[in-house]
Amino acid sequence: MGYLGGGKGVLPLSPDTFAGREITTDTLLIAEMAGTVPCRVCFDLGTGTGEILRNTDFLNKGVFTVGIDISHDALRLFDRTAGQPVLCGVNAISSVFRKACADLVLANPPYNIAGEGRASIDPLRQEARTGNPLLLYRFIFAAAYLLRSGGHFIISGRKERAEEIRTGLYAAGFSQIERSERGRVLAVKALMERSWPSEYCRSIIC
């Protein structure tokens, strides 16, 4: 869900953190782009240990932040000074949270498709990086459910999935799409022009 890194260009935070808790390129891209968006309430979908939130200036700005993930192990290491961790899957967002409650939603979804490519020997890393083909769209529609009209969504992914991300954003009602790239990674920011009916978003997410 975006809490594990690895490979070239990864900066370990400290020696006492578990393997994989690192600052990755996608984390930095989202954090940098998030710093340009004024907000009062921010959700981080797939927060993991909360590295994206830790790398923003939200605490100093008084932003209320919520980190969502399905991993007990990741949330156990979530730094609560960066926000409030909540154990919840994206498919349950519409059942747990109030619609249109956020100004900003961040997401770093799994970028590998289950059954494709080489599996990681680290089960936590494998869980964080791998999902089914529809998971990307569930993240996008979960963000659309949470965002108020005029709110922003920032999502990262591999460049080869750029068209899928763009398609999902347009399908969910986002506009004014901007992108930032670094190496093989891109981050995309989009505007939620109007909030979708709860029943519509729920039917897509679940």
Question: Care to give the gist of this entry?
Answer:
With 206 residues, this protein is α/β, with parallel strands linked by helices. It is built from nine helices and eleven strands.
Strand-helix topology:
Blueprint: E1 11-12, E2 22-23, H1 25-34, E3 41-45, H2 51-54, H3 58-61, E4 64-69, H4 72-76, E5 84-87, H5 93-96, E6 102-107, E7 112-113, H6 123-129, E8 130-131, H7 135-146, E9 147-158, H8 162-171, E10 174-182, E11 185-192, H9 198-205
Parallel strand pairs: 3-4, 3-6, 4-5, 6-9, 7-8
Antiparallel strand pairs: 1-2, 9-11, 10-11
What are the salient characteristics of this protein?
206 residues; alpha/beta; globular; 11 strands; two-stranded antiparallel sheet
What does this structure look like?
The chain has 206 residues and is α/β, with parallel strands linked by helices. It has a single domain (11-205), classed as Vaccinia Virus protein VP39 (Rossmann fold, 3-Layer(aba) Sandwich), CATH 3.40.50.150. It contains nine helices and eleven strands. The chain has helices at residues 25-34, 51-54, 58-61, 72-76, 93-96, 123-129, 135-146, 162-171, 198-205; strands at residues 11-12, 22-23, 41-45, 64-69, 84-87, 102-107, 112-113, 130-131, 147-158, 174-182, 185-192. Helix 7 (135-146) crosses helix 8 and helix 7 runs antiparallel to helix 9 (198-205). The longest helix is centred in the last third of the chain and has 12 residues, at 135-146. The model is unreliable at 1-20 (pLDDT under 50).
